[in-house]
Design a protein that fits this description.
alpha/beta; 8 strands; elongated; 341 residues
Length: 341
């Protein structure tokens, strides 16, 4: 709050004091008070009034500065009314009491929403673990089928179901991802191999050739989350493949960082859609044409990459293919404290 703001807020009060002083001067002059007395009295009163005004401005500024500091230091801003001292004036106390009651109502609503969110997340996680049992049983039954065509089709559909179930689990955990991962030293080749193995059926059914280069690198990341991210990229490449499909996974050094590129030769992404491909729920024109797109895969990849301090960039040329680049942080640059070896 500046002096200009303070004077602007008190302008009506200042004008009222000036008018009252002028009326008092006229009254005193009319009752025979000497002009010399008035010339001494009113400048003295003006100086006192100015001092009181400036002192009040300073106190207000100091008080607002204290409130701003308290607000900035709060992690949960809605607790602001609970952390400040009660004002002295009666009017301010009434406003403060109403604000505190409103804040408490909001805190109660936030607590209820957080509890409901936690309960829903726990239910989704429980459901995912329960649904895996019949999926596994169905896969075993499918393997015993004597009809190779039916077995192939069922295997593909079960793989899709398992992929959607896994995405639901990671989506439920994404809001509190920092509680679920552990940064460790990992071999990039092993992470890529596990991701490819998990989606081998989908890749084989689409006759996709996998090429790897330079993956014999050590990275610092959470293996489970990174494998999930790579799996989503492989699924996208398989879903939007072109003729003679191929996926190339190539790693290289970028200073002390490791950069992994996942490149395909699929149908690519239109240039005007690239800035939105990581937005939640965005499916794009290719997703609408081919169907089966949820707009969640790349959104989850971006969100989890941010939690893991991974850089994620998507480039594409329509009709030529798409390249996703993951940049793994150097060990000394990790902002996450849960590092294990």
């Amino acid at each position: 709050m500046s002096l200009k703001d303070y004077l602007s807020d008190r302008l009506g009060n200042i004008l009222l004091h000036i008018i009252c002083a002028a009326i008092a001067a006229l009254f005193l002059k009319a009752t025979g008070t000497q002009t010399g007395v008035l010339l001494i009295l009113f400048p003295a009163l003006f100086l006192i009034f100015l001092f009181v005004l400036l002192h009040d401005c300073y106190c207000q500024y100091k008080h607002f500065l204290e409130l701003e500091t308290i607000f900035q230091n709060l992690d949960q801003k809605y607790l602001f009314a609970e952390c400040i001292r009660k004002p002295r004036g009666l009017y301010e106390q009434k406003i403060f009491d109403l604000s505190r009651r409103a804040a408490r109502a909001m805190i109660s609503a936030v607590s209820d929403a957080q509890a409901a969110q936690k309960e829903y997340r726990e239910y989704v996680e429980s459901w995912v673990h329960e649904i895996k049992t019949p999926i596994t049983a169905a896969a075993l039954i499918c393997r015993r089928s004597t009809d190779s065509e039916i077995r192939r089709k069922l295997t593909r559909e079960l793989a899709q179901i398992e992929s959607h179930v896994e995405r639901a689990l990671f989506y439920a955990r994404a809001e509190s991802a920092e509680k679920d991962f552990m940064i460790r030293q990992c071999m990039l080749s092993e992470l890529a191999a596990k991701a490819i193995s998990q989606h081998r059926a989908l890749l084989q059914q689409n006759d996709i050739r996998i090429e790897t280069d330079g993956l014999d690198q050590i990275v610092f990341t959470d293996s489970k989350w990174t494998i999930f991210i790579l799996g989503q990229l492989l699924q996208n490449a398989a879903r939007y493949h072109g003729k003679h499909p191929a996926i190339i996974l190539c790693a290289s050094h970028l200073g002390k960082q490791i950069r992994l590129t996942v490149k395909d030769n699929g149908i690519g992404i239109p240039a005007h859609e690239l800035p939105r491909v990581c937005d939640r729920g965005f499916t794009g024109s290719n997703g609408r044409i081919r169907g089966g797109s949820t707009g969640i895969g790349l959104y989850l990849c971006k969100k989890l990459a941010e939690c893991l301090d991974l850089g994620l960039a998507v480039t594409s040329e329509e009709g030529e293919g798409t390249t996703v680049t993951l940049t793994f942080p150097a060990k000394e640059h990790l902002a996450i404290h849960s590092v294990s070896y």
